[in-house]
Amino acid sequence: LAYTGWALLGYIAFFYAMVIITSKLPCSKQETFKKFQAYTDKQTKDLTKHLTFLLGFYVSFIIKRWWDQHKLIPSPDSMAILNTGLIFYKNDDGTDKPGAKKLSEDLLRYQILAFILCMRKISKPVKKAFPTSDVLVEKGIA
Hints:
It is a single chain. The chain is mainly alpha-helical and 142 residues long. 80% of the residues lie in helices and 0% in strands. The chain is built from six helices and no strands. Helix 3 runs antiparallel to helix 4. The longest helix is centred in the middle third of the chain and has 46 residues, at 27-72. The two termini are 56 Å apart.
């Protein structure tokens, strides 16, 4: 049975038991049942509190793990800024350094290539955009 079928079966069994208990049992047994019903109601409320706490703890733990993994993925933007700060484009006399811009572009291209190769293993959209190494060569990345 599906979930709704089991729930419906449980409701029917509960109402059947209630009819039998309220109409067929003697008063002393009905009082015992009402005490049992109050006890289980209290235990259920306590259990709900504890389960809510544990579920919140579990969800926060999972989100923290996901966020920590997300922070470990390098950003191409930060790599580009780092390249710009580490490569000197001008000589001491103010003239342009030959090949400095080409070096910066090549380093950034290699960084993006490494990023794509890593992300291609875990991201379906990246895998769809760059399915083979030939596509990377065609786009001028590799």
